[in-house]
Amino acid sequence: MVAFQRTCAPCIEQRKQWSFLSSGLCVYRFCPQTFLRAEPIQHFSMGTYLQSDSIHTELIPPQSMSDRDFKRFRNFIYDKCGINLVEAKKTMLTARLQKRLKAAGISSFSQYFDYVTGRGASNGELVQMIDAITTNKTEFFRESAHFDYLTQTALPELIGRSGGGLKKKVTLWSAGCSSGEEPYTLAMVLSEFAEKIPGFDFSILATDISTKVLKTAIAGIYEHEKIQPVPMRLRKKYLLRGKGDRKGLVRIVSGLRSRVKFLRMNLIDEKLDISQPVEVVFCRNVIIYFDRPTREKVINNLAKHLIRGGYMFMGHSETLNGLIVPLSPVAPTVYRKTK
Questions:
Q1: What DSSP string describes 6-25?
Q2: Fold (CATH) for 145-337
C-alpha cells in the first residue's frame, strides 16, 4: 500500500484543522485549505494511493480484524440480534465497526469487543454497534402486489369474519420497519381503504432494532427521489414539499404520522412489548439475514401476537417452507395463522 505525503508551511500551520477523506478501506487526512485549491485528483482504486502535487496527504492505516476477534463478534452479534455473519462478511464487519472504534477512541477490535461486552459495558454503545452493523434497505410501495392483496382480500375477509376495523381498530405491525417507508405506505393504503368503508379504523405498530433508522422514520422526512414509487395522487394528498433550505425534501403529513407508533424492538427477544393482538404482520426482507433456527424463532415470536386467522406478509425472496410455525400459505409470500 502506497501513500504520498508532502509537507509545506500551510499544512504544518493547519494540521490541527485537518479533516478526513475516506476511500474504500483507507482513510486519508487532508488540508482543507490546500484541498480547495487543488486540481482534480488522479483516479485511484480501493484506496491504494492518492497522488496529487497540490493535495497533502497522510495515510492513516486501517485496523485489521483477526480471525479470533471476528469469531467473537460473530457469536456475540448472533446471540444479541440473530444476525448470522458468515466468513465472507468479515470485510463488511471490519469496515462498519472501524467507525465505532474511531468514535469511542479505541485502537483495536479486541479492546472494542471488551468495551462492548465486558462488565459494566455501555448499553448505549451496544445500541450504536447494532446500528452500525444492520442493513436497512427499503422503499415506498415495495412489492406492491402485497398492498393489493391486503385491501382486496385480507381486510374484506377480516371485516366479514370478525368486524375487524369496524367493531374495533384493526392493528397492523410492520416488523423490521427500517426508516419508515413501509409503515407510511401502509398508512396511505389503509387511509384510502377507510374512505371507501365508512367506520373503518386502524393503527400501525412499526418496530426496528436500529435506533438510527427509527429517528428517520419518526421524523417522516425523505429526499424527493425516495418518493418516486408513490403515485402522484397520493403524493399530493399525503406528502408536504419542503421550501427554502428544505427544498428537495418531503414530509409525511401529520395526520398520517399520527397513525404510526414506532418502537425499538429486537425480534429474537422471548418477550416482545406488544400490548394487544394484531390482525396483520408485515415482516418482509428481515429473516433473510438469519439462519434457519433463528428464522423459526422469529416467526413464532411474531405469530404469538397474531390473531387466529390473521395474515403475515413475507418478502419475495423469503419462504417459511420447512419451518415449524402455525402459518399456512394463502398466496405467494402471504401466510395465515391456522392455530
A1: ---HHHHHHGGG-EEEEETT
A2: Rossmann fold (3.40.50)
Give this prediction's pTM: 0.74
Exposure class string for 237-250: b at 16+ Cβ within 10 A, else e = ebbeeeeeeeeebb
Smallest CA-to-CA distance from 307 within 152, 142, 154, 143 is with 154
Instruction: List, for residues 94-104, the tens digit of each pLDDT value.
Output: 999 998 998 88
Q: What is the pLDDT of residues 161-193, one digit of tens each?
A: 877 777 789 999 999 999 999 999 999 999 999
Burial track 154-192 (b if 16+ CB lie within 10 A, e otherwise): bbeebbeebebbeeeebbbbbbbbbbbbbbbbbbbbbbe
| Residue ranges per structural domain of the chain | 9-60, 67-133, 145-337
User: Are domains 67-133 and 145-337 of this chain identical in fold?
Assistant: no
**Distance separating alpha carbons of residues 305 and 263, to the nearest angstrom:** 16
Would you tell me which CATH number, out of the four given (1.10.155.10, 3.20.20.70, 3.40.50.720, 1.10.10.10), belongs to the domain 67-133?
A: 1.10.155.10
